[in-house]
Write the structure tokens for this entry.
Amino acid sequence: MPKEIHSSQPITIAEAFELLKEREKDAIAQDKELSYMQKEAMDHARFTTRLTGEDASNLSTRLMEEMGISPLGAISLTNTLPTTIDEVRQILDVEARKMETETIKKILEIIQSVERIEEIPEEEYYTVEEEEFDLVEKEIDESQIPDDL
């Protein structure tokens, strides 16, 4: 049964990863495990984030406060960590139309000042085992397949 949503606020992928790690610890303490979707979300976050949750939060806050970027724009920049002026313009789209090139260069300086984390080794990813799914192998009657396929 779906859980009731009491509030929602956008967060970075790194912050989501930190939340999922905490949820995983709680699940282990209760002798349970994360759901399939939580495992997949955690793998995606682990694979795509290059910042710690705290660094990501600080970066997005700094972009909002110092550069006047919207919360969603700051989160998008934090998630993607652009390296060129064109990438920043594409991510911010309408917001960037009003910005001068010098402002965008300042945004890039702020983004580049944040320390990145090393890539997580692949063996630490969750892998979904085949036995978690009901895989049914069926014989196919080839005489039923049309010739024009």
Notes: The two ends are 42 Å apart (CA to CA).
